[in-house]
Structures are given as C-alpha cells and as structure tokens.
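S1.2 Input.
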Amino acid sequence: MQRAILFLLLMLLSLPVMAGTVYVQSTQAELHKAPRFDGPVTARVDKGTPLKVLKKQGRWIRVAEDGGKPGWVFRFLVASHRPLKKETVLKGDEKSIQDNARRRASNVTTAGAARGLQDGGRQRLSARGGADYAAVRHLEQMSISDRQVIAFLGGAQR
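S1.3 Output.
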C-alpha cells in the first residue's frame, strides 16, 4: 500500500515536468530517434522553436514539434522560456555592420605575433629601442666552442 501511494505521489510530482512546452535555446537542436547522441537524427529545429514535452528520461526529453514527428532532445539545449532576442548597441543594419566588422587575423599573422614578429614593424621597433634585430641576427650567427664554454664556466669540468 505504501509503495502504491509513493508511486502515485511520484507520478503527480512528475506531471508538471512532462507537461508543457520547451523552447530551443541553441542555434539549432537535433531531435534523435533514441535518447543518445549517436542515435539517428530525425529532425533539426531552429532556435526559439516551441516543442511539446512528451516524456523525460534522465538528461533527455522526448518532444514533438507542432505537426512534426516526436524525437529526443538533450535537455541542456532547451528551456521552459523563450530564448532572448539578439541585442546590439551598434547602429545600422546587420549587413552594414558585418561589412565593416574587423575580420579575424590569419593563422600566419597570429603565429608571428605570438613570437613577437610584426609585418613591416621591425625597423620601427628597433628605432625606438624596443627590439634590436641586428643584435639578434649577430647572436644567431655566432658559434661557441666547448673550450670557450669551459672557460666561461671558470674552468670547471664535469
């Protein structure tokens, strides 16, 4: 009898979770045939799409799009509220903003900058005393013998 009451209580508490609507929060969510990431994808739904909740199983929710086939969606891709609208402080239409936006640096430029290199900036840095590339070039061309290293270390041999 206690088990039956406990079962009924659990069912009543889970009804609000199973009932209702959830909204896709990510750019796009995949509905799977089974509650697994490696399961076949039955549909892809866009951000903001309302989905009717049919069942909940662990981290997966069985949902159905209005007029569509049911499928399983990972619960972190949906929420019970509509997604926030895109906000911007930039003025102008989206196309003009994209056209005037600064583009990402190329991989070559990024790798060079990580090593302290700048395209065409070597002489300017050297003139300000920031980097002496002539001295670096001189050091790279130097060759030191074992005898010179031992003399530098004070004659100590290991």
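S1.4 Remarks. Residues 122-158 form one domain.
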